[in-house]
From TrEMBL, chain A:
Its EC number is 3.6.1.7. InterPro entries: Acylphosphatase-like_dom, Acylphosphatase-like_dom_sf, ATP-grasp, ATP-grasp_PylC-type. It comes from Lacicoccus alkaliphilus DSM 16010. Residues 481-515 form a coiled coil. The active site is at R402, N420. The keyword DNA damage does not apply. This is acylphosphatase. One of its GO terms (cellular component) is cytoplasm. Residues 93-345 form the ATP-grasp domain. GO terms for biological process: SOS response. Keywords: ATP-binding, Coiled coil, Hydrolase, Ligase, Nucleotide-binding. PANTHER family: BETA-CITRYLGLUTAMATE SYNTHASE B-RELATED, RIBOSOMAL PROTEIN S6 MODIFICATION PROTEIN. Residues 387-474 form the Acylphosphatase-like domain.
Automatic annotation (TrEMBL), chain B:
Keywords: ATP-binding, Coiled coil, Ligase, Nucleotide-binding. This is Acylphosphatase. GO terms for molecular function: ATP binding; metal ion binding; ribosomal S6-glutamic acid ligase activity. Residues 396-483 form the Acylphosphatase-like domain.
Length: 535, 547
């Protein structure tokens, strides 16, 4: 098991621009898949009741158009969405279905019930229990594994008064691992689990250093770029309980957990566990779709008791996030974006898929800033790409040269970019559907314009995705405000880590020095006493 | 002197059009007019919508192609020209011979003239000219910006010289020889059967104040021109030609002009080389207006556009010089003298007459031209739709906050609050360290409630005082923190610098540390070896401390 790098599906490698990372990863990857098959893609804004901007999109093949939000398409009805939005209604449907789906035993309470009513019901239950709101998001207000009535008595007012949830559920705590399973129709696509933030020891580095290394890997995963492990009180406390410090060097292959909760945003990892799904578990997941009318594809949170092959459904999600499945830190990546497009546009299933991608940041900028309400992305013809990576050396860093390269590429309908390198060479990535055009372009570059002397071209195959159209690679100062903000946040994080390390080093250095100073001055102190005659 | 009598349209202020330069200005002002009436506005690339069939040019950069859409129809525009002007009309407009044919047919005069291609020698042209009556005008057929146009050529010798200059030196081989019509030249804009604007173009000139030299007057005038949306990229250029022209008036660049003395710097009237647009709508007789309309209508499918004509100074008869279906509107909107004429309004009235009565109370509102075009740069997208603005009225309010108002977090909070209330506007840091917030919205109550939101201050910021004022200036949709990007960039640079120094520090420390570890054994024995040397130092330090 190696954590030295994050593995992409090849057609996604480097093809997720900043705007498509993190929370917009489904919005980008599903749309990208359709666009790569030659469908017309439109992004548009939608404002919810709180005036918050939601980016939605539609895909069209000219005859039919489908509308999407996040990973959910219009094949899921509003009715189905509303059922899933409320955990208690969901449970009702699952429990009362023709083929009942196992859910935790429990009861719902609303504002008419007093805290005492809830506690009275709790007295009839076997602890541990779970207390949660019916419509909370992202684990907000969820308290699992409550061991005692006393504990529960403290939690109830917190959730109801402080967090302000009116409808709450008290139910059995089911032990096991929580699987996130995605289903389309009567087919289970895959499953993942989330692991709390952790580091894997190598017998050489301290926990602190391992966190830093892990964060460096996380920054290369488009789903986790801004979800780094931040050392806070919780992590320190957790380590302390185990008798560890940040400076502890864990043994090789020892996994050190840093938190209890497994939220990805707090540094957790997504791990693919599709192969762990038994037929029984798959059936349970599929039966959820049969129990809720109008739910053609969905995700479920299932507590799985692997030993006894038992599964209980905690929650159904009409638009599950695909990020953890597409970009897991461990296990096989699963291309659910492909599955969704296969489902809505089955006629494009066997179509050649282009490896181009588009500038999602540029497309979103006016939508995010509420200047534009829709943007029609340029439609492409889905054909395979033929690509080259070129390194031009000689007297090549000359004003105007990059622009010249861009014009040559544009003229031949080629994609890619040109970038000056720090070592004085010029890097060109070029790709196009016409192999001959690419080769002609390479020759043209070798010849160069009069004012440039290209001495050598290092030429390699390029088999990775390429951004549509040809650009002169931007410098950081050309980033959009949102990109800049993100970049600043990341840099700040890295810097904080470094500063802390420095402080530690200084402290160690001082400790060492003072120890030494003491030793050095030891004989001197004697001499000093002799000279001054003091006692 | 600059604005002695210029009157621009408040709803097209310099600030509103500040992002739209040159040809982009024409597109933006027409698009804006339609958008403000609640029409759906989309910006396109050449491959989108009806544009592949439409005659356009130099449209690699987005911002010149747009469509306006009502419930039952869509119209497409290239700069100031809409799709009610046919491609044939555009072609005829760019071809003098066919224009002349059509005009003559309707009994409208153009100056007599002949075209010569590069096959014709200068001598042959001279021979032809001997059959014409001087003075005459020589111009290249494919020149632009008045380059190579020689007017008022009085005799054969001058023509010979002019030919050598234009065909030889400037290398324009195809030329037009035309009779010279003495008189005032007008550019008249016609929509349908109505003249909606007219201007004179006056050659580059300066007016003295009894104090400044011609040179510094030119510089000052260029400063003024920079503030005019039409003229900002068209300064007067001081070159040999200007000096030569001055010398014919016994003047030099260093001459000081008397107060009120107006001096011309060239004969050419082109705005792009320093000419002044001057409103001339009220100068035109009904007869001239009628001729302009008839000239435009002579070309089938030319439903709106500009007519350039000269009114003969003796006969008062109009001679059409050119028809321009894709005319610049800038001079008519931002004259140096006279009244601006609202051509965009007339164009939209013509295409969408049902919107004529749309209230103009939202005319302070505009959208970020540069930002809305971002997805079209490099053709990431085919088209973008500007957020619809279908409202009759907009309410505005200004709040001035004192306290801890400089933090980025605070600015972001304000922005999120404005957005949550669906308000537009901006926040701007003032030199006195107060923060000015302007909000605008359709719902008056929401606009006023923003004060409560600020006072409620659920972000727990340190705000001392919130003052409230009226605001009547322009509103760009969206919510902008002025200087936000600059601030972000600075932040970014600082963080980057910190990171670099942290890295260096780390390297240094690690080296130091490992050095120390390595030399530990040696260092432990050091005190013994250096005891005598250290004693003095220690002693000095100790006694110093005890004083």
């Amino acid at each position: 098991m190696s954590e030295s790098e994050f593995r992409w599906m090849p057609h996604h490698e480097g093809a997720v621009p900043p705007a498509g990372q993190g929370k917009r990863i489904s919005t980008y990857t599903v749309a990208l898949e359709g666009w790569r098959r030659g469908l017309d893609l439109k992004y548009y804004s939608y404002f919810d009741e709180d005036n918050l901007l939601k980016v939605r999109y539609s895909l069209s093949n000219g005859e039919k158009t489908h509308y999407f939000q996040l990973s959910m398409g219009d094949g899921v009805t509003k009715e189905a969405f509303d059922i899933c939005d409320n955990k208690e209604t969901t449970k009702d449907y699952l429990r009362n279905a023709e083929i009942p789906v196992p859910v935790p035993e429990g009861k719902m309470f609303d504002e008419k019930h007093t805290d005492e009513d809830i506690l009275a019901y709790a007295a009839t239950m076997n602890f541990p229990v779970v207390f949660k709101p019916t419509d909370g998001n992202a684990g907000n207000g969820v308290f699992a594994n409550i061991q005692t009535v006393e504990e529960l008595a403290e939690i109830i007012p917190h959730v109801r008064e402080e967090l302000g949830f009116d409808e709450v559920i008290l139910e059995d705590y089911v032990p096991g691992r929580e699987f996130r399973i995605v289903v389309i129709g009567d087919r289970v696509l895959g499953a993942m689990i989330r692991r709390p933030a952790s580091v894997l020891g190598d017998g050489r580095h301290t926990i602190k250093e391992l966190i830093q290394k892990t964060n460096e890997i996380r920054m290369t995963n488009p789903h986790l770029t801004s979800r780094l492990i931040k050392v806070d009180r919780e992590i320190r406390a957790m380590l302390q309980r185990k008798g560890y410090k940040l400076s502890t060097v864990p043994e090789k292959d020892e996994r050190v957990y840093l938190r209890e909760k497994s939220n990805l945003s707090k540094g957790g990892d997504a791990i693919d566990v599709t192969d762990k799904l038994t037929d029984n578990l798959k059936d349970i997941a599929i039966n959820v779709g049969r129990a809720i009318p109008g739910l053609q594809h969905y995700g479920v949170d299932m507590i799985v008791d692997e030993e006894n092959d038992r599964g209980v459904i905690l929650e159904v999600n009409a638009r599950p996030g695909f990020g953890g499945h597409l970009f897991p830190m461990e296990g096989t990546p699963r291309d659910f974006a492909k599955e969704i497009i296969d489902f809505y546009f089955p006629e494009t299933k066997d179509k050649e898929r282009s490896w181009l991608y588009f500038d999602f940041d540029a497309a979103l900028e006016p939508i995010k800033n509420r200047t534009a309400s829709s943007v029609d992305i340029t439609t492409i013809t889905p054909e395979p790409l033929y690509g080259k990576k070129l390194i031009l050396s000689g007297n090549v860093i000359v004003p105007g040269f990059r622009n010249w390269v861009k014009q040559q590429a544009k003229h031949k309908d080629l994609h890619g970019y040109v970038e000056n390198q720090e070592d004085g060479t010029v890097l060109v990535i070029v790709a196009g559907t016409d192999q001959l055009a690419v080769e002609k372009f390479v020759k043209k570059c070798f010849k160069g314009p009069d004012y440039v002397e290209v001495i050598a071209i290092d030429e390699q195959e390029w088999n990775k995705p390429v951004k549509i159209f040809f650009e002169i690679k931007k410098r950081k100062t050309d980033l959009t405000p949102l990109q800049l903000e993100k970049e600043i946040e990341n840099l700040q994080q890295v810097n904080e880590d470094l500063e802390k390390r420095n402080e530690e080093l200084i402290a160690r250095y001082r400790r060492f020095k003072s120890r030494k100073a003491w030793k050095i001055t030891a004989p001197l102190r004697k001499v000093y006493k002799l000279i001054t005659g003091k006692k | 002197m600059r604005e002695k009598s210029a009157e621009w349209l408040p709803h097209l202020s310099g600030e509103i059009v500040s992002e739209a330069h040159g040809n982009y200005l024409d597109a933006y002002v027409v698009a804006l007019e339609g958008w403000r009436r609640g029409l759906t506005l989309k910006w396109h690339v050449k491959e989108s919508g009806k544009f592949p069939e439409m005659k356009t040019w130099f449209v690699d950069k987005p911002g010149q192609l747009f469509s306006l859409e009502s419930d039952d129809k869509t119209h497409y525009f290239f700069r100031s020209r809409g799709d009610k002007v046919t491609n044939e009309a555009v072609e005829i407009g760019s071809d003098k011979e066919s224009t002349k044919e059509l005009l003559q047919h309707k009994g409208i005069k153009m100056p007599e003239g002949s075209i010569f291609t590069k096959e014709t020698s200068d001598e042959a042209i001279l021979r032809h000219a001997s059959g014409m009556s001087f003075p005459i005008v020589l111009k290249p057929t494919d020149g632009s910006f008045g380059k190579g146009v020689i007017t008022n050529i009085k005799n054969n010798d001058e023509l010979k010289e002019a030919l050598e200059y234009v065909r030889g030196k400037l290398n324009y081989s195809n030329v037009l020889l035309e009779e010279y019509i003495p008189g005032k030249e007008y550019r008249i804009y016609v929509v349908g059967d109505k003249v909606v604007g007219a201007m004179n173009r006056i050659p580059a000139n300066v007016t003295g104040d009894g104090e400044h030299t011609v040179r510094s007057l030119i510089q000052r005038k260029n400063g003024d021109r920079a503030l005019n949306p039409r003229l900002r990229s068209c300064p007067i250029i001081i070159d040999e030609e200007v000096e030569r022209y001055l010398s014919t008036q016994d003047l030099f660049l260093d001459s000081v002009l008397d107060t009120g003395e107006q001096v011309f710097l060239t004969e050419k009237t082109n705005i792009s080389i320093g000419g002044d647009p001057v409103d001339a709508f009220d100068d035109l007789s009904d007869g001239i207006k009628d001729s302009a309309v008839r000239a435009l209508q002579a070309v089938p499918g030319l439903s709106h556009g500009a007519v350039d004509l000269i009114v003969h100074e003796e006969t008062s008869e109009p001679y059409i010089i050119e028809l321009n279906p894709t005319a610049n509107l800038g001079g008519l909107l931002y004259p140096i003298e006279g009244q601006a004429r609202d051509i965009p309004k007339e164009i939209i009235d013509y295409y969408f007459p049902e919107t004529q009565d749309a209230l103009r109370k939202t005319s302070i509102v505009y959208f970020d031209y540069r930002e809305v075009l971002t997805p079209l740069q490099d053709k990431t997208a085919y088209n973008t739709k500007v957020v619809q603005f279908d409202y009759d009225e907009i309410h505005t309010r200004k709040f001035i906050i004192h306290g801890d108002v400089k933090s980025f977090v605070f600015h972001k909070w304000i922005k999120s609050k404005a957005k949550a209330s669906g308000l537009h506007g901006f926040a701007s840091l003032k030199p006195d360290e107060s923060l000015e917030i302007v909000v605008a919205g359709v719902d008056q109550e929401l606009v006023h409630q923003f004060r409560d939101i600020l006072l409620e201050n659920d972000g727990g910021f340190n705000i001392n005082e919130v003052k409230e004022e009226n605001y009547n200036e322009t509103i760009k949709i969206g919510f902008e923190i002025e200087g936000e990007y600059k601030e972000l960039l600075n932040n970014y640079k600082t963080v980057q610098r910190n990171l670099e120094s942290s890295k260096k520090e780390l390297k240094k420390l690690e080296k130091q540390y490992s050095n120390m570890l390595n030399s530990r054994a040696w260092k432990l024995t050091r005190p013994v070896r250096t005891v005598s040397g250290t004693i003095k130092k220690m002693y000095q330090r100790i006694t110093k401390n005890s004083h």
